[in-house]
Amino acid sequence: MKKVLPSIAALAAAAVLAFGPATAPAQQPPIRLGALFCVTGGLASLDGPALAGAKLKVAELNAAGGVLGRKLELVVLDGKSDAATIATATSQLIGSDKVPMIVGLSDSDHVLAMGPIGQKAGIPMVAVGATSPKLPAQVGDNLFMASFGDNVQAAAGAEYLLKKLGAKTAYVLYDTGTEYTTLLQEYFKVAYEKGGGKLAGTDTYKSGDTSFTAQITKIKALRPAPQALYISAMPDEIGVIVKQLRQAGVKLPVVGGDGYDTPLLVEVGGAAADGVAFTTHSYMAPDGSAPVKKFIAAYQAANKAAPENAFAALGYDAVGMAADAIKRAGSVEPAKIRAALAATSGYAGVSGSISYTAGNRVPDKTVAVIGVKAKKLYLAAEIKPAFVPAP
Amino acid sequence: MARDADPALHVALAGAAMAAAWLAPQVLPDHVTRALIVFALHAIFVVSLAFTNGLTGVFSLGHVAFVALGAYTAGITALAPAMQVAMLPKLPAVLAAVHLGFVASCLAGGAVAAVVALVVGWPILRLSGHYVSVATLGLLVIVEVTLVNAKDITRGARTFTNVPTDTTLPWAVGALVLTLVVLGRIAASPTGRALRAVREDPIAAASIGIGVRAMRLLAFTVAAFFAGAGGGLYAHYLGSFSPATFGFPLTFLLIAMLVVGGMRSLTGALVGTALVTLLSELLRNAERGFAIGGVEVPALFGASQIVLGLVLIAVMVFRPSGLLGDAELSVRWLRPSRLVVSRPKESST
Question: How many CB pairs under 8 A join A and B?
Answer without folding.
Answer: 87
